[in-house]
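Aim 2 progress. For ABC transporter domain-containing protein, the working sequence is reproduced below.
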Amino acid sequence: MSVLDHGPVDPAPVEPGRPPVVSARDVVVAYRTGHGRRAEQVHALKGVSLDIMPGQTLGVVGESGSGKTTLGRVLLGLVRPTSGQVLFDGLPVTGRGTARRLRGRLQVVLQNPDWSLNPTLHVWRSVAEPLAVTGRTARRARREAVADMLVLVGLDPALADRHPHQLSGGQRQRVAIARAMITRPDLIVFDEAVTALDVSVQTQVLNLIRDLQAERGFAALFISHDIAAVRYVSHGLAVTYHGQIVESGPVERFYDRAEHPYTRRLIGAMPTITKPTSTMQTTRPVSRREKDDLP
Ligand SMILES: Nc1ncnc2c1ncn2[C@@H]1O[C@H](COP(=O)(O)OP(=O)(O)OP(=O)(O)O)[C@@H](O)[C@H]1O
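Predicted structure tokens for this construct:
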């Protein structure tokens, strides 16, 4: 039995009356492809609605091409809905004045850390970069903030003076998470953030995400094609299929009561299914440094 077969995360307390961090209402995204007579539209999202509450993770699972990445990008304001609306903190996520208002409050962790870490820069510069964009932190304070952040993600702060290629894949992903966390965002989109990692490192990074969320209280969208990983870090789960959310609800429900045939297929494809019988044990070592995660 893998550690991922344990039960879901403890529900983070949601204060009554607090609004969602991000809401999507009937969001449609149609991409245009081709030109002239060959022009056509691909409907990546076909009327998606969801809310993510502070301190909660919504897991999104679905097959390739079902619209997961588009959903993440639309919540981050990187893709404008063709119709429908995305609200962050109650206000539209795209449009005039939003870039300034949202700076540093929305972050993303991608599948490959190399996509967000500049290979020519020392680690500390890459981690500090989002702080420079918010323009609020002096250089020295930035270095200190980076050191604190590296410790928070379980890395030796001495790694700040290395280049990304001098780190292991797991360490690089921790650096990417540190970079995403440094502005204390309200929402982080994890898009296949553990997919490229070795299985043992995957579990460490999933534990890290859970611990960081418990400590910092950010809301998260956790996208993966791997339902075991999604269940492990999420409070709620949404299943995408052909651009729609075909099933959603609290994560516990996806241990034995999946309704949509596609969800049942996903669960059926998992090697072991164990119902949650106890609170998940954390595997985090006290120091948070993962010895087996060295390059
Ligand atoms: N920029 C784009 N232009 C045109 N079509 C796009 C674009 N981005 C995505 N698509 C299409 O939209 C649909 C949804 O893609 P999306 O990447 O959101 O799905 P996904 O579930 O994240 O897939 P995967 O798991 O393979 O990453 C697919 O049919 C894809 O080909």
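Residues 209 and 233 are 7 Å apart (CA to CA). This observation will guide construct design in the next reporting period.
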